[in-house]
Amino acid sequence: MSRNPGVDRARPILTTCGHGISRRAFLTRAGAAALGTLLLPSTQAIAGIFNRERTLSLHNVNTNEDLTIVCRPEQYYDRPLMQKFSHFLRDHRSDEIRAMDPALIDLLYAVSAFTGSAGTIKIISGYRSPETNNWLRKIRHGVAEHSMHIEGKAVDIRMTDVDSRTIQKVALALQQGGVGYYRRADFVHLDTGKIRSW
């Protein structure tokens, strides 16, 4: 049980992230990628980041809801937390919920850590039902027919204290999935699928 109302703490249940690798392997690989692109000065800096508890403050701009997650790299996300996370990222147009990939939390953790953010992660889009995605394809340019949003493996974000270009650079360095940079709309797409960028 969380000590603070509205704050969820990770508890061990889930043992792997999106690609079937351990979360420790994900974070180690992410750290190596960031170090390799000079985002961090040393392996000690990586260890320091991944040994610290980190608070993720999330705000859904469509529903005006907030969710705070306190996590550490060696902890896993229990079922009640994932249910809250999935509800928070539901399709706000249809109110439909899909189980979201827990690896998205690790990805948000890594982006937050490597950017040095202490602000709020603004969620522009999480899960999209197939119907919502088809509708968006008709009215917007650049919406993928087989979007990772439909699979519960993608989020579109911006941050209150980090510009979107920096988020993009960090996400690309992590090499942990798809990264899309939307300069005009000022957000970054992150997903846990194949490594690719646009």
Outline the structure in words.
The chain has 198 residues and is of the alpha/beta class. It has one domain. It is 33% helix and 21% strand. It has six helices and eight strands, in the order βααββααβαβαβββ. Strands 1-3-2-4-5-7-6-8 form an eight-stranded mixed beta sheet, covered by helices on one side. A hairpin with a 4-residue loop joins strand 6 and strand 7. Helix 1 runs parallel beside helix 4 and helix 4 packs across helix 6. It is globular.
Summed up:
This protein has 198 residues and is α/β, with parallel strands linked by helices.
Distance between the termini: 41 Å
Largest sheet: 8 strands, mixed
Low-confidence stretches: 1-5, 10-21
Count of extended strands: 8
Give the overall shape: globular
Q: Which structural class fits the helix and strand makeup?
A: alpha/beta
- How many domains? The number is 1
Topology at a glance:
Elements: E1 7-9, H1 23-36, H2 43-50, E2 54-60, E3 65-71, H3 79-88, H4 103-115, E4 120-125, H5 130-139, E5 154-159, H6 164-174, E6 178-182, E7 187-191, E8 196-197
Parallel strand pairs: 1-3, 2-4, 6-8
Antiparallel strand pairs: 2-3, 4-5, 5-7, 6-7
Helix pairs in contact: 1-4, 4-6
